[in-house]
């Protein structure tokens, strides 16, 4: 049991942050070994979740600061003319987002909103109808921005 505890302590550094890797040597069979393997498994899962959460937060902070995250720009945004790595709001698409938010508040479904926009002559950047999955993403992004 002492070796299990020492391995756990070695797994976490003095700063409380998990190490990058953990090497688990095969433990002897039995209840203590099974417990040790389960504890290591949970610790590894916890480490992966910590990394995932910190990466997500960093990416959201990067994006909220106006930095470009990928080659495909989010609806409602365009590249900054002075700095291609920054984003600025596209006024025409921002008006469409406001219309989408208002339509959703009226109780319209994502599909119905897309149909109404198409009827109004509003299409996606590729010239197609705004698909319900894109409308859902636009609304989620608008909600996040309002939450700030």
Structural class: mainly alpha
Query: Helix count, per DSSP?
Result: 5
**In order across it, which strands form the biggest sheet?**
1-2
Q: Termini distance?
A: 48 Å
| Number of extended strands | 2
Number of domains: 2
Approximately what portion of the residues adopt beta-strand conformation? Answer: under 5%
The chain-level mean pLDDT equals 81
Entry summary:
This protein is mostly helical and about 150 residues long. Helix content is about 55%, strand content about 5%.
Structure explained in plain terms:
The chain has 148 residues and is mostly helical. It has two domains: 2-64; 77-147, no CATH class. Helices cover 57% and strands 4% of the residues. A two-stranded antiparallel ribbon has the order 1-2. A hairpin with a 7-residue loop joins strand 1 and strand 2. The protein starts with a helix and ends with a helix.
